């Protein structure tokens, strides 16, 4: 596996039904209401109702396209029913290499004072739990 390096990250606040499938890899796309204006390398999964960050995942790609394009490309992987999806999607993040934390993190452990409404950038890059891919792996994934 590749070495760990500091990467920019965001925390996504998700209801349990949207957060729980991510650590197992069952959900490989996260749909967002708004798009992020800078690239991130990881998403930390804040499970609403618990006050805890329960997992993190590498972000393989970020897409800001019209909702119908997002649905055709990622609807099934998002695990969101189409009626809920319609009018909601403005961006999609492709997720890979998820891990569930053995000990969930508090918001203060990652430098946040309160939970995000939807998502927020972390104040500064932090050491990931998910190793970055080796250069060869990253190039292979892009082919």
From TrEMBL:
SUPFAM superfamilies: PUA domain-like. Pfam families: ASCH. Residues 14-62 form the ASCH domain. Residues 134-143 have a biased composition (Basic and acidic residues). Signal peptide: none annotated. Residues 124-143 are annotated as: Disordered. It comes from the Bacteria. GO terms for molecular function: iron ion binding; oxidoreductase activity. Keywords: Iron, Oxidoreductase. PROSITE patterns: IPNS_1. Belongs to the iron/ascorbate-dependent oxidoreductase family. This is ASCH domain-containing protein. It comes from Bifidobacterium longum subsp. infantis.
């Amino acid at each position: 596996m590749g070495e760990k390096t500091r990467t920019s990250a965001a925390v996504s606040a998700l209801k349990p039904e949207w957060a729980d499938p991510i650590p197992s890899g069952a959900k490989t796309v996260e749909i967002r209401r708004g798009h992020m204006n800078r690239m991130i390398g990881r998403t930390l999964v804040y499970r609403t109702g618990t006050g805890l960050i329960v997992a993190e995942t590498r972000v393989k790609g970020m897409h800001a396209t019209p909702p119908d394009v997002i649905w055709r490309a990622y609807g099934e992987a998002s695990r969101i029913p189409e009626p809920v999806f319609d009018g909601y999607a403005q961006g999609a993040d492709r997720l890979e290499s998820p891990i569930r934390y053995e000990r969930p993190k508090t918001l203060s452990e990652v430098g946040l004072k309160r939970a995000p409404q939807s998502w927020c950038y972390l104040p500064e890059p932090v050491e990931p739990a998910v190793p970055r891919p080796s250069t060869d792996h990253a190039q292979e994934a892009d082919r």
